[in-house]
Amino acid sequence: MCSTITIWYPFHPFHGRELIVERVSDKERGFVDCIDSEGRKLRVPLWMTMPDAAEHRVANSVAIEPGSLLKLVRLVRLSRKTR
After folding, report:
1. By CB count within 10 A, which of 4, 34, 38, 49 is most buried?
2. What is the spatial order of strands in the sheet that 18-26 belongs to?
3. H or E segment at 18?
4. DSSP H helical segments within 1-83, as ranges?
């Protein structure tokens, strides 16, 4: 008997599809190795297989404070200097 999962995350290309579970590959980081109906193998984050993942939506407006964006810009600039 095969174990299957469904991809609930609405932005995943396999959303709504049932996949065969090959194995839980990295329990600490939460990934599962699957096989689709055409035999292709893929690794999916476990959270995308939870029904709650179906609730993810794109917001109509931005919900990020300007100060957070400035911090992100500084972080990106710093990471470029260390390369």
Report:
1. 34
2. 4-6, 18-26, 31-35, 41-45
3. strand 18-26
4. 66-81
The pLDDT assigned to 83 comes to 64
Cα gap 23→3, rounded to integer Å? 9
Q: Hey, what are 7's tokens?
A: 């991809």
- Condensed to tens digits (0 to 9), the pLDDT of residues 40-67 reads 999 999 999 999 999 988 888 877 888 9
Number of neighbouring beta carbons within 10 Å of residue 61: 4
Domain 1-56 falls under CATH 2.30.30: yes
Strand partners, 5: 19
DSSP labels for 59-76?
A: -SS----HHHHHHHHHHH
Residue type, position 77, single letter: R
